[in-house]
Each structure stands twice: as C-alpha cells, then as structure tokens.
Amino acid sequence: MKKIFLSFWMIFLFAVVVAQEPSHLTGDEAFLSEVRLLESWIQQQMVWRNIPGLAVGIVYEREPVYARGFGYADLEKKTPVTPQSLFRLASNSKTFTATAVMQLRDAGRLRLDDPVDKYLPGFSIGNPFPDAPPITIYHLLTHTSGLPREAAFPYWTDRHFPTLQQILDSLPHQEMIYPPGERIKYSNLGMALLGEIVAVASGMSYEEYVTTRILRPLGMEHTYVTLDERERAQLVTPYSRRFPDGSRRVMPFTDARGLTPAAGITSCIDDLTRYVALQFSTAKGEGAVLSKYTLEEMHRLHFPKKDWSGGYGLGFRVWRDEGLTVCGHGGWVAGNRSQISFIPSEKVGVIVLTNADDVPPSFFATRILHMMVPVIRDIVSSKAAVPPAPDPQWKKFTGLYSDPSWYETEIMIYRGQLVMNNHSYPPADDPHDDLVRLTPAGPRTFVMDGPNGNGEKVVFIMDANDQVVKVKVGENYLFPVR
Description:
It is a single chain. This protein is about 30% helix and about 20% strand. It is an alpha+beta fold. The protein has two domains: about 25-385, DD-peptidase/beta-lactamase superfamily (Beta-lactamase, 3-Layer(aba) Sandwich), CATH 3.40.710.10; about 390-480, Lipocalin. The strands form three sheets. Strands 1, 2, 3, 4, 7, 8, 9, 10, 11 and 12 form a ten-stranded antiparallel sheet that branches. It has an eight-stranded antiparallel β-barrel with strand order 13-14-15-16-17-18-19-20. A two-stranded antiparallel sheet has the order 5-6. β7 and β8 form a beta hairpin. Residues about 1-20 have low confidence and may be disordered.
C-alpha cells in the first residue's frame, strides 16, 4: 500500500502545471519562499486526501500574483488541471447576480428597498405572517427574505432542475419560513428570483446581461452563464466523495436552468483572478464595472448572525478571521467545489477550485490567506527582512527523500536557509509547523536547529558525481526519491 501511495505522489508531481507568470511581487525572495512552501504543503494535502484536482489563484490589488493547477482534471485520461481548467462555480454564481443588481441600482433601474412584486407581478407565496413587511430586493441580497431554501422541486435529489416559469408557477404552493428581515436564511430560491429581477429591470435576459455587462468588460472570456455542448466537454471531470473501497464515482452534469442565477456559472482560475481584482477596484466614474463605493457597500456587514460571528453583506458572506474582515462565498454542485475569499483591507484574495465532493476549498483558501497576507504586507510596506543569500552548494541537497517505511522529507531552501520539510500525515494545518532549520556544521553536515530542531546532525553522503546517495539523520538514513 505504501508503494502505491508513493507512486501516486510521483504521478501527482508530474501532473502539476504552472500556467501563469506572476507579477512583480514574485521578484521578492520572501514571496517566492512562501510559494515554494505553499506548493509543498498542497502536494502533501493532495496525497493525504487523495484529491483528484485542485486549482489555486492569488490576487494582490488589481493583479494576479499566482495561478497554478495541481493534480488531474480527469483521472482516467491523466489530463492535468491548469489555471484555464473549467469548473462549475455553483453558489459563487450568486455573487455575480449580486453584482448585476448593484450595477442596475447604480444606474437607477431599481432600488434595493423595492418590493419583489414590483418586478415580478405574479409573485405570490404562502404568508403566515400577515403583519410582516413585503419581501424586498435587499432581503434577497442578504438572504433575509424568509423564503424557503429551495424552489418546490427535489432537484438536488433527481438532478432535474425546473425552469424559471415552473419556479414562479409553484410559488403559491410554498410558504415563507420566517418574516422578512428577521434572520438569515440561505435561499437558492431567493437568488433565482433575483436573477429574474435583473432580467426585468435591464430589459435583457439574465445570461445576456451578466455576459455583456460583467464578464466581457472584465475580460472573462472563458466564463459562461450557460454551457453549450462544446463548452460542456471542456469541464473538469466531477468526482464524488471517496467510498470505503477508495473509489470515486463520476458525478452527472446538472443544468441549473431556472436556478442559474444561484448556481449555474462556470469559470476558471485565470478569469476569476480578474473577478477578485475587481473587488479591489478604486474606479469611481462611468465605465467602471462597479464603483469603489458600491464595492465597499457590498463588502460591509449588513445583517449579522445572532452570535455576531459573521453574516451577509450584499451578495457576499462576511466573517472575521485573525482580527481581519474577510468577504467571499463558497459553492458546491455535483463534484465541483469553489471558494472565493478576500480581505478588502489587505487587498489580497484567494480562489480555490476542486473537482471532488469531499475536498473543502475553504480549508485551503483560509490557510493560503494566513500564509500570504503577512508576507505580502511586509513586502509592500518594505518591512520584509532580506533573506540571507543561500550557499549555491545547497542546491544539490534539495529534493524529496524517503526512509524504508516511505516516510517522506523534502529538503528545500526557505528564506535563504536550508530546511527539512517533514511530511507529516496527516499534514499540519500550518505549513510552517513541519519545518526544521538546518544550520551548517561542515561542508556536508548540518544540525537540526530552530523551534522544531532537536540538535541532531544531518549528513549528506555523495557519490563520485557529487550526487546525494543518502542522508544520515541522527543514526538513520533517508534516500533520494527524485
């Protein structure tokens, strides 16, 4: 079993693809070191969790600074994930719908306090709260409408999604759960109605509006509201969770139809870095997709949870993490999961996409923010310590090593120092927790030093070609894997 485990690791490394040259930040060794550590940690997580594919993008201000694919878009065909691989965004579609609403509000085509029935005259739903106020656009944006979570169809069970007209026709057979404005109640139904309000207020279909007023102005040429057969064929293969025998099933494609404004958009890392860059825009005048003032309004907490742990802005979730306010959204539909998380005050954003039901992209997005925000902050403020120049001879020591029990250690250069990155399983949540500094004690001899060190010696044993044959760690040995 351990040999199979290592084989997967080697195949995985082959499948990793770097697809985009990052911007000026990557000229800084501190940023490069953090990226190398991040990639090593992601690789460990990929193996431990048996993740088919993962794509990651990082944005600072208006620039993408990192985009990379890991693993496979299709396991059988061994198609690698790249930053151009197409994933279903699922509920991250809601943020595009909210963007459309705010554009129309700014253009004077609607008001947030307008009642829903102003734009949907046939809107009618059972209301056990006769004294409650009418449901407004604001309620739909903040998920405080009190509407049921779903339209009156079992589409998450049978994968047969209703048309918009079917949703509207079925509304009289449903009933509100809470009075509007009383509490947060997530509603795909509410967001589907909001998409139709976009269509009515703009005078064009939801798809046409989002495509022409949001996607094309941002240069998102590979993002689609609906998919034709050619585009559908380009999607990553969606996988179920792992079953007890270790297998995964290929999940069926689901056409969201009337639920498209809530769950239907498809995109890729390269395009989504442009979308996240929009969130940090300082544009104020005509021609802007959204003004900085409207973006700030969307990112602000409008309706908190009862415990004040977070809540909703306008279309975005808002929460606190390590003293900072984070905005974003997640999404999950049939083997596609997505997470967009960004910190407006730091102008740093992360996108994570995956093609497996049991992989939590929010876990990765949170850890990446924890890693990258401090180093970007220090570089931008010129407070980043200049790493010492590593000894050029150390390069030949770097690589992946394993002991006879297949326990792996990666030796790498991190911030100008040679370090051991011990691949613990399960991997540490904080990638820094597995690092051991190697302090020189001779030409090929080092001491395990720093917070995680134990003072033992590490000796590199070389062959006649000056290649590492094995590494003596204390009284035991590691052997090169690659």
